Protein backbone atom coordinates (compact mmCIF):
# COMPACT_ATOMS: atom_id res chain seq x y z
CA UNK A 1 0.00 0.00 0.00
CA UNK A 2 0.97 3.66 -0.42
CA UNK A 3 2.34 5.01 2.86
CA UNK A 4 3.45 8.46 1.81
CA UNK A 5 3.96 10.73 -1.19
CA UNK A 6 6.37 13.66 -1.35
CA UNK A 7 5.91 16.24 -4.12
CA UNK A 8 8.20 19.17 -4.88
CA UNK A 9 8.05 21.75 -7.65
CA UNK A 10 5.07 20.25 -9.48
CA UNK A 11 2.31 22.41 -11.06
CA UNK A 12 1.11 24.73 -8.23
CA UNK A 13 2.72 22.57 -5.54
CA UNK A 14 5.99 23.97 -4.23
CA UNK A 15 6.47 21.24 -1.64
CA UNK A 16 4.02 18.79 -0.14
CA UNK A 17 4.01 15.58 1.89
CA UNK A 18 0.90 13.44 2.37
CA UNK A 19 0.75 10.31 4.53
CA UNK A 20 -2.12 7.97 3.66
CA UNK A 21 -4.30 5.70 5.75
CA UNK A 22 -4.16 1.98 4.91
CA UNK A 23 -7.93 1.86 4.33
CA UNK A 24 -10.38 4.36 2.80
CA UNK A 25 -8.87 7.75 1.94
CA UNK A 26 -10.97 10.58 0.54
CA UNK A 27 -9.61 13.75 -1.08
CA UNK A 28 -11.95 16.71 -1.43
CA UNK A 29 -11.64 20.40 -2.15
CA UNK A 30 -12.92 23.13 -4.38
CA UNK A 31 -12.59 22.84 -8.15
CA UNK A 32 -9.13 23.98 -9.21
CA UNK A 33 -7.64 23.62 -5.72
CA UNK A 34 -5.27 20.91 -6.90
CA UNK A 35 -6.95 17.57 -6.19
CA UNK A 36 -6.22 16.14 -9.60
CA UNK A 37 -2.75 17.66 -9.47
CA UNK A 38 -1.96 15.27 -6.61
CA UNK A 39 -3.26 12.42 -8.76
CA UNK A 40 -1.17 13.72 -11.66
CA UNK A 41 1.93 13.59 -9.49
CA UNK A 42 1.05 10.03 -8.54
CA UNK A 43 0.70 9.31 -12.23
CA UNK A 44 4.37 10.24 -12.70
CA UNK A 45 5.31 7.61 -10.14
CA UNK A 46 3.27 5.13 -12.15
CA UNK A 47 5.21 5.89 -15.33
CA UNK A 48 3.02 8.51 -17.00
CA UNK A 49 4.55 10.87 -19.56
CA UNK A 50 6.18 14.04 -18.19
CA UNK A 51 7.67 17.27 -19.54
CA UNK A 52 9.04 20.55 -18.26
CA UNK A 53 5.62 22.23 -18.39
CA UNK A 54 4.78 20.66 -15.00
CA UNK A 55 7.57 22.55 -13.22
CA UNK A 56 6.43 25.07 -10.59
CA UNK A 57 9.86 26.73 -10.73
CA UNK A 58 11.52 26.22 -14.09
CA UNK A 59 14.96 26.70 -12.54
CA UNK A 60 14.62 23.63 -10.35
CA UNK A 61 13.82 20.01 -11.00
CA UNK A 62 10.54 18.40 -10.05
CA UNK A 63 10.66 15.48 -7.60
CA UNK A 64 7.86 13.05 -6.79
CA UNK A 65 8.66 10.25 -4.36
CA UNK A 66 6.27 7.60 -3.07
CA UNK A 67 6.84 5.15 -0.24
CA UNK A 68 5.06 1.81 -0.51
CA UNK A 69 4.68 -0.91 2.10
CA UNK A 70 5.52 -4.21 0.35
CA UNK A 71 5.32 -6.66 3.23
CA UNK A 72 4.09 -10.05 1.97
CA UNK A 73 3.95 -8.74 -1.60
CA UNK A 74 5.54 -11.73 -3.33
CA UNK A 75 5.25 -10.29 -6.84
CA UNK A 76 7.12 -7.10 -5.93
CA UNK A 77 9.81 -9.04 -4.10
CA UNK A 78 10.17 -11.30 -7.12
CA UNK A 79 10.60 -8.23 -9.35
CA UNK A 80 13.24 -6.84 -7.00
CA UNK A 81 15.24 -10.04 -7.39
CA UNK A 82 14.81 -10.10 -11.18
CA UNK A 83 15.97 -6.48 -11.45
CA UNK A 84 18.79 -6.97 -8.93
CA UNK A 85 17.37 -4.27 -6.63
CA UNK A 86 17.74 -4.24 -2.88
CA UNK A 87 14.81 -4.33 -0.46
CA UNK A 88 14.78 -1.61 2.20
CA UNK A 89 12.98 -2.62 5.42
CA UNK A 90 9.95 -4.01 3.55
CA UNK A 91 9.26 -0.68 1.87
CA UNK A 92 9.70 0.42 -1.72
CA UNK A 93 10.87 3.94 -2.54
CA UNK A 94 9.83 5.05 -6.01
CA UNK A 95 11.13 8.42 -7.22
CA UNK A 96 10.70 10.37 -10.43
CA UNK A 97 12.71 13.48 -11.26
CA UNK A 98 11.94 15.89 -14.13
CA UNK A 99 14.60 18.39 -15.16
CA UNK A 100 14.04 21.84 -16.61
CA UNK A 101 14.91 20.37 -20.03
CA UNK A 102 11.97 17.98 -19.78
CA UNK A 103 14.10 14.88 -19.33
CA UNK A 104 13.08 12.55 -16.54
CA UNK A 105 14.88 9.99 -14.40
CA UNK A 106 13.38 7.11 -12.46
CA UNK A 107 14.63 5.45 -9.28
CA UNK A 108 13.60 2.45 -7.21
CA UNK A 109 15.16 2.24 -3.76
CA UNK A 110 17.56 5.01 -4.88
CA UNK A 111 18.79 2.90 -7.81
CA UNK A 112 18.31 4.33 -11.33
CA UNK A 113 15.90 2.27 -13.44
CA UNK A 114 14.29 2.59 -16.86
CA UNK A 115 10.77 3.94 -17.19
CA UNK A 116 9.69 0.51 -18.42
CA UNK A 117 10.99 -1.07 -15.20
CA UNK A 118 9.19 1.59 -13.18
CA UNK A 119 5.92 0.79 -14.95
CA UNK A 120 6.46 -2.91 -14.26
CA UNK A 121 6.53 -2.23 -10.54
CA UNK A 122 3.71 0.30 -10.65
CA UNK A 123 1.37 -2.14 -12.39
CA UNK A 124 1.65 -4.44 -9.39
CA UNK A 125 1.30 -1.69 -6.77
CA UNK A 126 -1.47 0.64 -7.88
CA UNK A 127 -4.55 0.69 -10.07
CA UNK A 128 -5.21 4.29 -11.13
CA UNK A 129 -8.61 5.35 -12.39
CA UNK A 130 -8.67 8.93 -13.64
CA UNK A 131 -11.39 11.13 -15.04
CA UNK A 132 -12.78 9.88 -18.36
CA UNK A 133 -11.26 6.43 -17.80
CA UNK A 134 -14.82 5.09 -17.87
CA UNK A 135 -14.45 5.26 -21.64
CA UNK A 136 -12.12 2.27 -21.30
CA UNK A 137 -15.18 0.16 -20.54
CA UNK A 138 -16.01 0.18 -24.24
CA UNK A 139 -12.51 -0.90 -25.21
CA UNK A 140 -12.24 -4.59 -26.06
CA UNK A 141 -8.71 -4.81 -24.68
CA UNK A 142 -9.88 -3.53 -21.30
CA UNK A 143 -12.82 -5.94 -21.35
CA UNK A 144 -10.54 -8.87 -22.13
CA UNK A 145 -8.17 -7.81 -19.33
CA UNK A 146 -11.06 -7.83 -16.86
CA UNK A 147 -12.17 -11.31 -17.89
CA UNK A 148 -8.60 -12.66 -17.73
CA UNK A 149 -8.07 -11.13 -14.28
CA UNK A 150 -11.16 -12.93 -13.05
CA UNK A 151 -10.18 -16.16 -14.77
CA UNK A 152 -6.84 -16.07 -12.91
CA UNK A 153 -4.93 -17.94 -15.61
CA UNK A 154 -1.87 -15.69 -15.92
CA UNK A 155 0.51 -18.65 -16.24
CA UNK A 156 -1.48 -20.18 -19.08
CA UNK A 157 -1.64 -16.79 -20.81
CA UNK A 158 2.12 -16.49 -20.43
CA UNK A 159 2.62 -19.94 -21.98
CA UNK A 160 0.32 -18.98 -24.82
CA UNK A 161 2.11 -15.68 -25.36
CA UNK A 162 5.43 -17.49 -25.77
CA UNK A 163 4.18 -20.01 -28.31
CA UNK A 164 2.14 -17.35 -30.16
CA UNK A 165 5.24 -15.16 -30.42
CA UNK A 166 7.15 -18.11 -31.86
CA UNK A 167 4.26 -18.86 -34.22
CA UNK A 168 4.03 -15.29 -35.53
CA UNK A 169 7.80 -15.05 -35.90
CA UNK A 170 8.00 -18.26 -37.92
CA UNK A 171 4.92 -17.28 -39.92
CA UNK A 172 6.56 -13.96 -40.81
CA UNK A 173 9.72 -15.80 -41.90
CA UNK A 174 7.61 -18.13 -44.03
CA UNK A 175 5.79 -15.21 -45.67
CA UNK A 176 9.11 -13.53 -46.44
CA UNK A 177 10.51 -16.71 -47.95
CA UNK A 178 7.41 -17.22 -50.08
CA UNK A 179 7.67 -13.62 -51.28
CA UNK A 180 11.36 -14.16 -52.07
CA UNK A 181 10.50 -17.33 -53.96
CA UNK A 182 7.80 -15.54 -55.95
CA UNK A 183 10.22 -12.80 -56.89
CA UNK A 184 12.87 -15.34 -57.80
CA UNK A 185 10.43 -17.39 -59.85
CA UNK A 186 9.71 -14.39 -62.04
CA UNK A 187 13.29 -14.53 -63.33
CA UNK A 188 14.01 -18.19 -62.68
CA UNK A 189 13.48 -19.35 -66.29
CA UNK A 190 15.70 -16.58 -67.60
CA UNK A 191 18.42 -17.42 -65.08
CA UNK A 192 18.16 -21.09 -66.07
CA UNK A 193 18.55 -20.16 -69.72
CA UNK A 194 21.62 -17.99 -69.04
CA UNK A 195 23.24 -20.64 -66.85
CA UNK A 196 22.54 -23.48 -69.30
CA UNK A 197 23.99 -21.43 -72.15
CA UNK A 198 27.22 -20.79 -70.22
CA UNK A 199 27.38 -24.32 -68.88
CA UNK A 200 26.98 -25.87 -72.32
CA UNK A 201 29.60 -23.50 -73.70
CA UNK A 202 31.93 -25.06 -71.15
CA UNK A 203 34.71 -22.51 -71.22
CA UNK A 204 37.76 -23.50 -69.18
CA UNK A 205 39.84 -21.06 -67.17
CA UNK A 206 41.77 -18.62 -69.47
CA UNK A 207 40.46 -20.48 -72.54
CA UNK A 208 39.43 -17.39 -74.48
CA UNK A 209 42.79 -15.71 -73.96
CA UNK A 210 44.59 -18.92 -75.04
CA UNK A 211 42.37 -19.24 -78.12
CA UNK A 212 43.14 -15.66 -79.13
CA UNK A 213 46.87 -16.44 -78.92
CA UNK A 214 46.41 -19.63 -80.94
CA UNK A 215 44.35 -17.74 -83.53
CA UNK A 216 47.14 -15.23 -84.05
CA UNK A 217 49.65 -18.05 -84.43
CA UNK A 218 47.57 -19.94 -86.96
CA UNK A 219 46.82 -16.80 -88.95
CA UNK A 220 50.57 -15.90 -89.06
CA UNK A 221 51.90 -19.42 -89.62
CA UNK A 222 53.04 -18.82 -93.22
CA UNK A 223 54.87 -15.58 -92.50
CA UNK A 224 56.48 -17.11 -89.43
CA UNK A 225 57.73 -20.12 -91.41
CA UNK A 226 59.03 -17.84 -94.18
CA UNK A 227 60.92 -15.72 -91.68
CA UNK A 228 62.41 -18.73 -89.92
CA UNK A 229 63.41 -20.32 -93.23
CA UNK A 230 65.19 -17.11 -94.27
CA UNK A 231 67.10 -16.97 -91.02
CA UNK A 232 68.10 -20.61 -91.15
CA UNK A 233 69.18 -20.30 -94.78
CA UNK A 234 71.27 -17.18 -94.19
CA UNK A 235 72.98 -18.78 -91.23
CA UNK A 236 73.76 -22.12 -92.91
CA UNK A 237 73.27 -22.17 -96.71
CA UNK A 238 73.73 -18.72 -98.23
CA UNK A 239 76.56 -17.69 -100.50
CA UNK A 240 78.44 -16.73 -97.40
CA UNK A 241 76.79 -18.62 -94.51
CA UNK A 242 77.22 -16.72 -91.27
CA UNK A 243 77.97 -19.85 -89.31
CA UNK A 244 80.75 -20.81 -91.73
CA UNK A 245 82.21 -17.28 -91.66
CA UNK A 246 82.48 -17.35 -87.88
CA UNK A 247 84.04 -20.80 -88.00
CA UNK A 248 86.64 -19.60 -90.55
CA UNK A 249 87.44 -16.58 -88.39
CA UNK A 250 88.04 -18.85 -85.41
CA UNK A 251 90.47 -20.98 -87.46
CA UNK A 252 92.32 -17.88 -88.63
CA UNK A 253 92.68 -16.53 -85.10
CA UNK A 254 93.87 -19.92 -83.89
CA UNK A 255 97.01 -19.58 -86.05
CA UNK A 256 98.12 -16.40 -84.30
CA UNK A 257 96.67 -16.77 -80.82
CA UNK A 258 100.06 -17.42 -79.28
CA UNK A 259 101.51 -14.22 -80.73
CA UNK A 260 99.23 -11.78 -78.93
CA UNK A 261 97.62 -12.36 -75.55
CA UNK A 262 94.37 -10.59 -76.52
CA UNK A 263 93.82 -12.81 -79.57
CA UNK A 264 93.31 -15.91 -77.46
CA UNK A 265 90.50 -14.17 -75.54
CA UNK A 266 88.95 -12.95 -78.77
CA UNK A 267 89.12 -16.48 -80.22
CA UNK A 268 87.29 -17.90 -77.20
CA UNK A 269 84.56 -15.28 -77.49
CA UNK A 270 84.05 -16.06 -81.18
CA UNK A 271 83.91 -19.72 -80.29
CA UNK A 272 81.14 -18.96 -77.78
CA UNK A 273 79.27 -16.98 -80.44
CA UNK A 274 79.63 -19.92 -82.81
CA UNK A 275 78.16 -22.30 -80.24
CA UNK A 276 75.26 -19.88 -79.37
CA UNK A 277 74.53 -19.35 -83.07
CA UNK A 278 74.35 -23.09 -83.67
CA UNK A 279 71.93 -23.36 -80.72
CA UNK A 280 69.83 -20.51 -82.16
CA UNK A 281 69.73 -22.22 -85.56
CA UNK A 282 68.59 -25.42 -83.84
CA UNK A 283 65.81 -23.51 -82.01
CA UNK A 284 64.77 -21.81 -85.26
CA UNK A 285 64.51 -25.17 -86.98
CA UNK A 286 62.62 -26.64 -84.04
CA UNK A 287 60.07 -23.82 -84.00
CA UNK A 288 59.81 -23.94 -87.78
CA UNK A 289 59.05 -27.62 -87.71
CA UNK A 290 56.22 -27.05 -85.20
CA UNK A 291 54.58 -24.17 -87.02
CA UNK A 292 51.92 -25.41 -89.39
CA UNK A 293 49.22 -23.73 -91.35
CA UNK A 294 46.15 -25.77 -90.20
CA UNK A 295 43.06 -24.32 -91.89
CA UNK A 296 40.75 -26.80 -90.13
CA UNK A 297 42.06 -25.91 -86.69
CA UNK A 298 41.84 -22.19 -87.48
CA UNK A 299 38.20 -22.60 -88.42
CA UNK A 300 37.51 -24.39 -85.12
CA UNK A 301 39.30 -21.68 -83.15
CA UNK A 302 37.45 -18.92 -84.98
CA UNK A 303 34.09 -20.55 -84.30
CA UNK A 304 34.96 -21.01 -80.61
CA UNK A 305 36.06 -17.39 -80.33
CA UNK A 306 32.93 -16.15 -82.08
CA UNK A 307 30.88 -18.02 -79.48
CA UNK A 308 33.03 -16.54 -76.73
CA UNK A 309 32.78 -12.97 -78.05
CA UNK A 310 29.00 -13.26 -78.32
CA UNK A 311 28.75 -14.32 -74.65
CA UNK A 312 31.24 -11.68 -73.52
CA UNK A 313 29.21 -8.99 -75.26
CA UNK A 314 25.92 -10.37 -73.93
CA UNK A 315 27.14 -10.21 -70.34
CA UNK A 316 29.14 -7.01 -70.86
CA UNK A 317 32.48 -8.49 -69.73
CA UNK A 318 35.87 -8.93 -71.41
CA UNK A 319 37.61 -11.98 -69.93
CA UNK A 320 37.08 -15.68 -69.36
CA UNK A 321 37.33 -15.25 -65.59
CA UNK A 322 34.46 -12.75 -65.59
CA UNK A 323 32.29 -15.04 -67.70
CA UNK A 324 32.96 -17.95 -65.33
CA UNK A 325 32.15 -15.73 -62.34
CA UNK A 326 28.77 -14.91 -63.89
CA UNK A 327 28.14 -18.60 -64.45
CA UNK A 328 28.97 -19.40 -60.80
CA UNK A 329 26.74 -16.58 -59.59
CA UNK A 330 23.84 -17.85 -61.68
CA UNK A 331 24.39 -21.32 -60.24
CA UNK A 332 24.25 -19.96 -56.69
CA UNK A 333 21.05 -18.07 -57.50
CA UNK A 334 19.45 -21.19 -58.89
CA UNK A 335 20.56 -23.17 -55.85
CA UNK A 336 19.19 -20.50 -53.50
CA UNK A 337 15.77 -20.88 -55.13
CA UNK A 338 15.96 -24.62 -54.56
CA UNK A 339 17.10 -23.99 -50.98
CA UNK A 340 14.16 -21.61 -50.47
CA UNK A 341 11.80 -24.37 -51.53
CA UNK A 342 13.32 -26.71 -48.93
CA UNK A 343 13.24 -23.99 -46.25
CA UNK A 344 9.61 -23.22 -47.09
CA UNK A 345 8.65 -26.86 -46.64
CA UNK A 346 10.42 -27.01 -43.28
CA UNK A 347 8.88 -23.75 -42.08
CA UNK A 348 5.41 -24.80 -43.21
CA UNK A 349 5.68 -27.87 -40.99
CA UNK A 350 6.97 -25.78 -38.07
CA UNK A 351 4.31 -23.08 -38.47
CA UNK A 352 1.58 -25.71 -38.52
CA UNK A 353 3.00 -27.28 -35.35
CA UNK A 354 3.18 -23.84 -33.66
CA UNK A 355 -0.39 -23.08 -34.73
CA UNK A 356 -1.61 -26.39 -33.36
CA UNK A 357 0.17 -25.84 -30.02
CA UNK A 358 -1.14 -22.28 -29.72
CA UNK A 359 -4.64 -23.42 -30.66
CA UNK A 360 -4.68 -26.04 -27.90
CA UNK A 361 -3.65 -23.49 -25.26
CA UNK A 362 -6.07 -20.90 -26.68
CA UNK A 363 -8.87 -23.46 -26.30
CA UNK A 364 -8.03 -23.86 -22.60
CA UNK A 365 -7.96 -20.08 -22.17
CA UNK A 366 -11.30 -19.71 -23.90
CA UNK A 367 -12.89 -22.40 -21.76
CA UNK A 368 -11.65 -20.70 -18.59
CA UNK A 369 -12.96 -17.32 -19.75
CA UNK A 370 -16.38 -18.73 -20.49
CA UNK A 371 -16.48 -20.50 -17.15
CA UNK A 372 -16.33 -17.25 -15.16
CA UNK A 373 -18.61 -15.03 -17.23
CA UNK A 374 -21.83 -16.17 -15.56
CA UNK A 375 -20.58 -15.43 -12.04
CA UNK A 376 -19.13 -12.12 -13.18
CA UNK A 377 -22.43 -11.05 -14.74
CA UNK A 378 -24.28 -11.93 -11.54
CA UNK A 379 -21.82 -10.05 -9.32
CA UNK A 380 -21.90 -6.94 -11.50
CA UNK A 381 -25.69 -6.98 -11.59
CA UNK A 382 -25.84 -7.25 -7.80
CA UNK A 383 -23.51 -4.26 -7.36
CA UNK A 384 -25.39 -2.24 -9.99
CA UNK A 385 -28.58 -2.83 -8.03
CA UNK A 386 -26.87 -1.41 -4.94
CA UNK A 387 -25.86 1.77 -6.78
CA UNK A 388 -29.35 2.48 -8.06
CA UNK A 389 -29.47 0.42 -11.27
CA UNK A 390 -31.64 -2.59 -10.32
CA UNK A 391 -32.78 -3.20 -13.89
CA UNK A 392 -29.35 -2.98 -15.46
CA UNK A 393 -27.65 -6.12 -16.70
CA UNK A 394 -24.32 -6.84 -18.31
CA UNK A 395 -23.54 -9.69 -20.64
CA UNK A 396 -20.11 -10.93 -21.61
CA UNK A 397 -19.96 -12.09 -25.21
CA UNK A 398 -17.14 -14.54 -25.91
CA UNK A 399 -17.10 -15.49 -29.58
CA UNK A 400 -14.62 -17.24 -31.82
CA UNK A 401 -12.23 -14.84 -33.53
CA UNK A 402 -11.42 -15.17 -37.22
CA UNK A 403 -7.91 -16.29 -36.39
CA UNK A 404 -5.48 -16.64 -33.53
CA UNK A 405 -4.40 -13.36 -31.98
CA UNK A 406 -1.99 -12.28 -29.28
CA UNK A 407 -4.51 -13.19 -26.55
CA UNK A 408 -6.04 -16.39 -27.85
CA UNK A 409 -8.88 -17.13 -30.16
CA UNK A 410 -11.67 -15.09 -28.54
CA UNK A 411 -13.41 -11.84 -29.34
CA UNK A 412 -14.67 -10.46 -26.03
CA UNK A 413 -17.27 -7.74 -25.77
CA UNK A 414 -19.31 -6.36 -22.86
CA UNK A 415 -22.95 -5.87 -23.79
CA UNK A 416 -25.35 -3.78 -21.70
CA UNK A 417 -29.06 -3.59 -21.08
CA UNK A 418 -30.12 -0.79 -18.74
CA UNK A 419 -33.84 -1.60 -18.56
CA UNK A 420 -34.42 -5.36 -18.79
CA UNK A 421 -35.33 -4.97 -22.44
CA UNK A 422 -33.35 -8.07 -23.42
CA UNK A 423 -31.73 -5.94 -26.09
CA UNK A 424 -28.06 -6.11 -25.22
CA UNK A 425 -25.90 -3.58 -27.05
CA UNK A 426 -22.19 -2.63 -26.87
CA UNK A 427 -21.52 -0.46 -23.81
CA UNK A 428 -20.22 2.55 -25.69
CA UNK A 429 -23.48 2.77 -27.65
CA UNK A 430 -26.09 2.59 -24.91
CA UNK A 431 -24.60 3.45 -21.49
CA UNK A 432 -24.75 7.05 -20.20
CA UNK A 433 -21.89 8.74 -18.34
CA UNK A 434 -23.41 8.04 -14.93
CA UNK A 435 -24.13 4.44 -15.84
CA UNK A 436 -20.57 3.98 -17.05
CA UNK A 437 -19.20 5.41 -13.78
CA UNK A 438 -21.28 3.04 -11.65
CA UNK A 439 -20.48 0.13 -13.91
CA UNK A 440 -16.74 0.89 -13.77
CA UNK A 441 -16.82 1.07 -9.98
CA UNK A 442 -18.67 -2.25 -9.81
CA UNK A 443 -16.27 -3.98 -12.18
CA UNK A 444 -13.16 -2.57 -10.51
CA UNK A 445 -14.36 -3.66 -7.09
CA UNK A 446 -14.84 -7.21 -8.37
CA UNK A 447 -11.54 -7.29 -10.26
CA UNK A 448 -9.58 -5.81 -7.34
CA UNK A 449 -10.67 -8.66 -5.11
CA UNK A 450 -9.38 -11.22 -7.60
CA UNK A 451 -6.16 -9.40 -8.49
CA UNK A 452 -5.23 -8.50 -4.91
CA UNK A 453 -4.14 -5.03 -6.05
CA UNK A 454 -2.75 -3.32 -2.89
CA UNK A 455 -3.85 0.24 -3.72
CA UNK A 456 -6.74 1.58 -5.81
CA UNK A 457 -6.82 5.24 -6.85
CA UNK A 458 -10.12 6.71 -8.02
CA UNK A 459 -10.11 10.19 -9.53
CA UNK A 460 -13.80 11.21 -9.61
CA UNK A 461 -15.09 7.76 -10.52
CA UNK A 462 -18.39 8.95 -8.99
CA UNK A 463 -19.03 11.38 -11.86
CA UNK A 464 -22.74 11.33 -12.72
CA UNK A 465 -23.71 9.63 -9.44
CA UNK A 466 -25.76 11.28 -6.71
CA UNK A 467 -28.25 10.57 -3.95
CA UNK A 468 -28.62 7.01 -2.73
CA UNK A 469 -26.53 5.72 -5.65
CA UNK A 470 -23.61 7.80 -4.36
CA UNK A 471 -24.24 6.43 -0.87
CA UNK A 472 -24.09 2.87 -2.16
CA UNK A 473 -20.97 3.69 -4.19
CA UNK A 474 -19.40 4.84 -0.96
CA UNK A 475 -20.39 1.56 0.69
CA UNK A 476 -18.74 -0.37 -2.13
CA UNK A 477 -15.54 1.64 -1.75
CA UNK A 478 -15.55 1.22 2.00
CA UNK A 479 -16.06 -2.52 1.62
CA UNK A 480 -13.16 -2.59 -0.85
CA UNK A 481 -11.06 -0.72 1.71
CA UNK A 482 -11.37 -3.60 4.16
CA UNK A 483 -8.88 -5.54 2.03
CA UNK A 484 -7.31 -2.83 -0.13
CA UNK A 485 -6.10 0.68 0.30
CA UNK A 486 -8.52 3.01 -1.50
CA UNK A 487 -7.70 6.63 -2.34
CA UNK A 488 -10.50 8.55 -4.00
CA UNK A 489 -11.09 12.11 -5.16
CA UNK A 490 -14.79 12.85 -4.82
CA UNK A 491 -17.38 15.64 -4.92
CA UNK A 492 -20.04 13.46 -3.27
CA UNK A 493 -20.71 14.04 0.47
CA UNK A 494 -22.24 10.54 0.71
CA UNK A 495 -18.91 9.01 -0.32
CA UNK A 496 -16.77 11.39 1.73
CA UNK A 497 -18.73 10.42 4.82
CA UNK A 498 -17.61 6.79 4.44
CA UNK A 499 -13.90 7.62 4.59
CA UNK A 500 -11.42 6.39 7.14
CA UNK A 501 -9.24 9.43 6.45
CA UNK A 502 -10.36 12.68 4.84
CA UNK A 503 -7.85 15.00 3.14
CA UNK A 504 -8.76 18.51 2.12
CA UNK A 505 -7.00 20.28 -0.76
CA UNK A 506 -6.96 24.07 -0.74
CA UNK A 507 -5.06 27.01 -2.23
CA UNK A 508 -2.90 29.35 -0.24
CA UNK A 509 -1.35 32.60 -1.43
CA UNK A 510 2.21 33.26 -0.26
CA UNK A 511 4.22 36.24 -1.51
CA UNK A 512 1.84 36.76 -4.38
CA UNK A 513 2.03 33.11 -5.52
CA UNK A 514 -0.68 30.49 -5.30
CA UNK A 515 0.31 27.21 -3.62
CA UNK A 516 -1.69 24.01 -3.30
CA UNK A 517 -1.88 22.55 0.19
CA UNK A 518 -3.32 19.33 1.66
CA UNK A 519 -4.39 18.77 5.26
CA UNK A 520 -5.78 15.75 7.07
CA UNK A 521 -9.09 16.74 8.64
CA UNK A 522 -10.08 15.88 12.18
CA UNK A 523 -13.68 15.01 13.02
CA UNK A 524 -14.86 18.61 13.22
CA UNK A 525 -13.04 19.46 10.02
CA UNK A 526 -14.69 16.55 8.27
CA UNK A 527 -18.13 17.63 9.44
CA UNK A 528 -17.58 21.13 8.07
CA UNK A 529 -16.15 19.84 4.77
CA UNK A 530 -19.07 17.47 4.21
CA UNK A 531 -21.55 20.20 5.20
CA UNK A 532 -19.91 22.46 2.61
CA UNK A 533 -20.34 19.73 0.01
CA UNK A 534 -24.02 19.52 0.95
CA UNK A 535 -24.93 23.21 1.05
CA UNK A 536 -22.01 25.27 -0.21
CA UNK A 537 -19.43 27.35 1.64
CA UNK A 538 -22.11 29.04 3.79
CA UNK A 539 -23.04 25.80 5.49
CA UNK A 540 -25.99 25.78 7.85
CA UNK A 541 -26.39 24.08 11.18
CA UNK A 542 -28.83 21.66 9.57
CA UNK A 543 -26.18 20.77 7.00
CA UNK A 544 -23.69 20.24 9.84
CA UNK A 545 -26.19 17.93 11.57
CA UNK A 546 -26.79 15.94 8.37
CA UNK A 547 -23.03 15.65 7.91
CA UNK A 548 -22.64 14.21 11.43
CA UNK A 549 -25.42 11.72 10.79
CA UNK A 550 -23.90 10.66 7.49
CA UNK A 551 -20.55 10.06 9.18
CA UNK A 552 -22.14 8.14 12.06
CA UNK A 553 -24.06 5.94 9.65
From TrEMBL:
Listed InterPro entries:
DNA_recomb/repair_RecN, P-loop_NTPase, RecF/RecN/SMC_N
Q: What does the record list as coiled-coil region(s)? A: 194-224
Q: Which residues cross the membrane?
A: none
Q: Which UniProt keywords apply?
A: ATP-binding, Coiled coil, DNA damage, DNA repair, Nucleotide-binding
Instruction: Tell me the ranges covered by the RecF/RecN/SMC N-terminal domain, including all copies.
Output: 4-509
Query: What does UniProt give as the signal peptide span?
Result: none
| CDD domains linked | ABC_RecN
Name the domain of life: Bacteria
**Nucleotidyltransferase as UniProt keyword:** no
PANTHER family listed in its UniProt record: DNA REPAIR PROTEIN RECN
What is the annotated role of this protein in its UniProt record?
A: May be involved in recombinational repair of damaged DNA.
Q: In which family does this protein belong, per the annotation?
A: Belongs to the RecN family.
Known NCBIfam families for this protein? recN
* Protein's recorded name: DNA repair protein RecN
Amino acid sequence: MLLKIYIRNYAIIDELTVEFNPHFNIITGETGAGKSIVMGALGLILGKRADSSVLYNTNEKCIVEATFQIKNNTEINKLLLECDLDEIDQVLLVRREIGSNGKSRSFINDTPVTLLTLKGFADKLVDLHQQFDTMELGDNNFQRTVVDALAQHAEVLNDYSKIFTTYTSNKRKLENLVASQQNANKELDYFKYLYTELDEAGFAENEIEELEAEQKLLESAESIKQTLDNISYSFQEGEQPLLQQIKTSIQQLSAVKNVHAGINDLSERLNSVHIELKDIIGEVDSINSNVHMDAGRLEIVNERLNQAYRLLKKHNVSATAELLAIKNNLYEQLQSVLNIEDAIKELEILVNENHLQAGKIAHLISAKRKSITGKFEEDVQALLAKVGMPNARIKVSVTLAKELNAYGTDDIQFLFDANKSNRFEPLEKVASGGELSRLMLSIKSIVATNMQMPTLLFDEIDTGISGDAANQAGNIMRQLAQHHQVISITHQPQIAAKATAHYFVYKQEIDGKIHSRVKLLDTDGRVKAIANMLSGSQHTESAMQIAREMMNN
